[in-house]
Amino acid sequence: MRHDSNNSSAAGPRADASPLVLPRKRGRKKVDGLVEARRQQILTAALELFGTKGFHRTTTQDLADSADVSVGLI
Fold it and tell me: Start and end of every HTH tetR-type domain (predicted)?
């Protein structure tokens, strides 16, 4: 029995193979610029609050209220 190295059933890409499907990313899609804008909004609010109330007296709720975002985002 002779082994033919040009056998089409050898390992390798198949003509009928379905395309590679990547797993779906979780969560919401990030809107360009929105993430950075929110980050700057939170940082600006933090600097103002730390300047007036002090770092140790500023709560995450204070920061969220000042930045107009949810506490979970902080």
Answer: 36-74
